[in-house]
Specification:
Radius of gyration: 28 Å
CATH class: Mainly Alpha
Largest sheet: none
Order of helices and strands: HHHHHHHHHHH
CATH architecture: Orthogonal Bundle
Length: about 300
Amino acid sequence: MSTSVLFDVPGPRARLRNNVLTLASAVVVLGIAYLLIKGLADKGQFAGRLWEPFLRAEVWTGQIFPGLIATLQAAVVSAVLALLFGVVFGLGRMSDHAWIRRPAGAVVEFFRAIPLLLLIFFAQAGVATISGYTLSVPAFAAVVVGLTLYNGSVLAEVFRAGVLAVPKGQSEAGYALGLRKGGVMRIILLPQATTAMMPAIVSQMVVLLKDTALGWVIAYEELLNFGLKQIPANFGNLIPSAIVISLVYIAINLALSYLANVLERRSRRSRRTSATVVTAPGAVGVNSAAAGTDVRF
């Protein structure tokens, strides 16, 4: 039996067993979906009057689109700040100086250990509670701060792991050429690590986008706030609203993943070079004269 690098290629009996298990799993999933749809239908959740509001332009322009814009604003600002936070503290954790490496590690581990919801609550009410002054922190700022601290700490570990995953010979070659540590990091390590880190970064950006929904608990008017609070309050269609809002989130995340894949393919092509054989001029002349060929430069 032929083998691959990771596992033995399944034989006829194993393929038959895998096909049977796949078919059984598909039947179970379809059965669950049928029961779910049937239960919703029995409860009248597919009634036209519940879905009709989503055919109105004013529902989309007045509620869904404003919530979507607020979600994207918080996600974009938080993503930029989280990436900067991750780069700074990820590189800080790899510093040769203990007075930089240890505080950076403590900050990353601290914010990774705190639930995001608590970070958002503390960003809005913690400063005023500690200082004793009545300070009104906007909900947008609280959401951005919480998302930045939590996701930035996760991205710091992603950056560190990506840089450390580059073969050690790459940095040694850079030092042999006379580059310092900053040059090796900027010119050699980071460009190679970026491609390896891209899937993890995209996954974290998707998590960040979905976590903007936690702003609902501090009255931040984002997509989930409109979809599960304001629209059902007006039309009494909680389940249809949840389904529509879920589809909007899925569409945004698919678009984000597609954009990331395009950027990854472009980055791979930009670093792809064609290797050519370089021959000494004297050797070219001798070989060409002996062979009677025409040499063009």
